[in-house]
Write a structure and sequence with these properties.
The chain has eight helices and no strands. 89% of the residues lie in helices and 0% in strands.
């Protein structure tokens, strides 16, 4: 039925939001290992994190128009593909500039999640269900923040920081 399909779509938005929040926190969780291996300063770690936020902030301004132009399905395919590839490829980085580059791409890709999700909710849900559906999908941010530490920390502890990026980056695919 259409009603069950709507909630399946909402669950997919929730999952995408969880994954985006796990991906964005991966670098922060493995930062001590990166600092040790690459002799990064706190300022450099801050610049890596700021590269994400710069792309994310300004990317949201264009993401809504992009999703309106290209549509939700293709928009999410591109957005999730970009952020997942950026996170996955961070495992290959050997220099500070590479971390900044891939964090920027991660932010650019993730900037489509909330504008795209709002569009999907507006397209799939009647007005009387939109606020609940929106609250449900955006709660994925908190769930992602909660699971990121134990998930990424455990992966990095047992298999190394590169594995943390490989595993979390592959979730979107």
């Amino acid at each position: 039925s259409l009603a069950s399909m709507r909630w399946t779509v909402c669950a997919m938005l929730f999952a995408a939001t969880v994954i985006s929040y796990v991906d964005r926190q991966t670098v922060s969780i493995v930062a001590p290992a990166l600092s040790d291996q690459f002799h990064l300063t706190n300022e450099q770690i801050g610049r890596m994190l700021s590269a994400f936020l710069l792309a994310y902030t300004f990317g949201q301004l264009g993401a809504g128009r992009f999703f309106d132009w290209i549509g939700s399905r293709i928009g999410f395919t591109i957005s999730i593909g970009l952020w997942s590839a950026a996170n996955l490829l961070t495992a290959t980085v050997t220099r500070f500039g590479g971390f900044v580059f891939f964090r920027f791409l991660l932010g650019a890709g993730e900037s489509g999640n909330f504008p795209g999700g709002v569009k999907v909710i507006a397209e799939w849900f009647p007005p009387e269900e939109r606020a609940f559906a929106g609250g449900l999908f955006t709660s994925g941010a908190s769930v992602g923040a909660i699971v990121a530490g134990p998930l990424v920390g455990s992966i990095a502890h047992y298999w190394g920081w590169q594995a943390a990026f490989l595993v979390t980056g592959s979730l979107g695919f």
